[in-house]
Specification:
The protein is of the alpha/beta class. It has 9 helices and 7 strands. Strands 1-7-6-2-3 form a 5-stranded parallel β-sheet, with helices on both faces. Strands 4-5 form a two-stranded antiparallel sheet. The protein starts with a helix and ends with a strand. This is ComF family protein. It comes from Mucilaginibacter celer. Belongs to the ComF/GntX family.
């Protein structure tokens, strides 16, 4: 019976091959979402080994961040862009959990990140959430939480108004666009906690900064940041 199932699965995969979400190569037995080549060759930043990495420097003099990290470099037209497009717009929520697991595996032995208590995803406005059906940052947070032994809180930090897309905006315009957008509903639940704020892609850091400003109003809160990708 098991052999029959294997033959049937192989036959179905010939007719409807499962493709790598990054490079579109056909996945073979034992591979899931990403092919083995992409799992090992996508451009890791290794920022968790660099306390003064380029993501961390974006917040210097703006908000107090314990540590900052991005899993991959984002290049226009590259495999990471294709992966993120599938994740955000093609309904492949499972990508977030996988990438969260990969990132968590890198961060679990880091002295700063392994002290994280709560993981908070950058929230979507409720209208955008209805349209997409899920918050990609929450999917990433859930995968991270499994490795970091932390809890995910996707209810406390809320987006109070919708904003226009940040694409093609200058750094200052991005900053202005995100002012007074976020709010912490129950700050007492985060007092004295080490919070890991997560998003999918960081470019100028304006959205993360705006979230961080609100979170850091909570007494005793320590803030770190993690994203799936860093785009220049």
């Amino acid at each position: 019976m098991n052999l029959l199932r294997t033959y049937l699965a192989d036959f179905v995969s010939l007719l409807f091959p499962e493709l790598c979400a990054a490079c579109e190569a056909s996945l073979v037995s034992g591979e899931h979402i990403l092919c083995s080549n992409c799992r090992f060759t996508l451009p890791f930043t290794n920022f968790h080994h660099q306390p003064d990495n380029i993501v961390a420097r974006q917040f210097w003099g703006k908000i107090n961040v314990e540590a900052a990290y991005a899993l991959y470099y984002f290049q226009k037209g590259g495999k990471v862009q294709h992966l993120m497009h599938n994740f955000k717009y093609n309904g492949m929520q499972q990508i977030g959990n996988l990438l969260g697991n990969i990132a968590g595996g890198q961060l679990i032995d880091n002295a700063v990140f392994k002290t994280v208590d709560v993981i908070i995803p950058v929230p979507l406005h409720k209208k955008r959430l209805r349209e997409r059906g899920y918050n990609q940052s929450t999917c990433f947070a859930q995968g991270l939480a499994e490795k970091l032994n932390a809890v995910v809180d996707d209810k406390n930090l809320i987006r109070t108004r919708a904003t226009k897309t940040q694409t093609r905006k200058s750094r200052f315009a991005r900053f202005e666009n995100m002012q007074h957008v976020f709010e912490v509903k129950n700050p007492q639940l985060l007092e004295g906690k080490h919070v890991l704020l997560v998003d999918d892609i960081v470019t100028t850091g304006s959205t993360l900064e705006a979230c961080g400003v609100e979170l850091l109003k909570v007494p005793g809160l320590k803030l770190s940041i993690a994203t799936i990708a860093y785009a220049e």
